[in-house]
């Protein structure tokens, strides 16, 4: 097998994982070709895994407290974000406001399993198991550990409220932005706007919700 940019010597586990990842695509040979050429291949989410996008500052703060990341994460150093691969359909139950869960309709640049160093996107540690998936509770715990560490240091991570346009350190996920291949994201609200507009947290939406913001008590969709 051809060596990949920024990669060390590959192992049998990495070969097995590479094949598992490549067959997510309808054209696995093309995935291998992209890995050979660039070290990274763009794969569809929502089939064998979703991905949780987390700001680098949160992950580094968590790991500085000796928190365990679990399985390897993907780091994109250009945008300073980490991606944790999680089981498919995690998007349907994800409620952590400081991590954006991407699923069906989104795409992610995934490094070859032997790519564990810069330049470009790479795994944070060797990929030793197939599939390289984290658990959703484990990722949420990592995010919370990082958030608490940052709060103790006096630099609280913040999100913009979609209603009052102010930043809040205690955001509520009120809905989902559907944006196709760019991944979409969450619609956040501050606690005051959540109360004023009687917003229903996404976790409390009915099972057939399309992710649009809704209000209490009748689960009405907001304009």
Tell me what the structure shows.
This protein is an alpha+beta fold. 24% of the residues lie in helices and 22% in strands. The chain is built from five helices and 13 strands. Strands 5-2-4-3-7 form a five-stranded antiparallel sheet. Strands 1-6 form a two-stranded antiparallel sheet. Strand 12 and strand 13 form a beta hairpin. Helix 3 (56-63) packs across helix 4. It is globular, with a radius of gyration of 19 Å. Residues 5-9 have low confidence and may be disordered.
Task: Give a nutshell description of this structure.
The chain is an alpha+beta fold and about 220 residues long. It is about 25% helix and about 20% strand. Helix 1 packs across helix 2.
Order of helices and strands: HHEEHEEEEEHEEEEHEE
The neighbouring-strand order within the major sheet is 5-2-4-3-7
Radius of gyration equals 19 Å
Question: Span between N and C termini?
Answer: 54 Å
DSSP summary: helix tally: 5
Biggest sheet details: 5 strands, antiparallel
User: Which stretches of 5+ consecutive residues score pLDDT under 50?
Assistant: 5-9
Query: Helical proportion?
Result: 10-25%
Structural class: alpha+beta
β-strand percent reads 15-25%
User: How many β-strands, per DSSP?
Assistant: 13
* Average of per-residue pLDDT values: 83
What global shape is seen?
globular
């Amino acid at each position: 097998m051809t060596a990949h940019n920024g990669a060390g010597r590959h192992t049998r586990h990495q070969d097995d994982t590479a094949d598992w990842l490549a067959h997510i695509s309808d054209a696995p040979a093309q995935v291998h070709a992209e890995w050979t050429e660039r070290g990274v291949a763009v794969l569809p989410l929502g089939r064998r895994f979703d991905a949780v996008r987390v700001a680098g500052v949160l992950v580094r703060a968590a790991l500085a407290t000796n928190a365990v990341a679990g399985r390897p994460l993907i780091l994109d150093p250009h945008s300073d974000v980490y991606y944790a691969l999680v089981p498919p359909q995690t998007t349907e139950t994800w409620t952590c406001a400081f991590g954006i869960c991407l699923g069906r309709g989104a795409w992610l640049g995934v490094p070859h399993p032997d790519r564990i160093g810069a330049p470009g996107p790479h795994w944070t540690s060797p990929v030793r198991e197939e599939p390289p998936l984290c658990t959703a509770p484990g990722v949420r715990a990592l995010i919370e550990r990082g958030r608490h560490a940052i709060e103790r240091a006096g630099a609280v991570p913040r999100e913009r409220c979609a209603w009052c346009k102010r930043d809040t350190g205690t955001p509520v996920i009120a809905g989902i932005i559907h944006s196709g291949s760019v991944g979409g994201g969450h619609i956040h609200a501050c606690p005051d706007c959540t109360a004023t507009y009687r917003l229903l947290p996404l976790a409390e939406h009915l099972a057939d919700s399309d992710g649009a913001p809704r209000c209490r008590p009748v689960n009405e969709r907001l304009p």
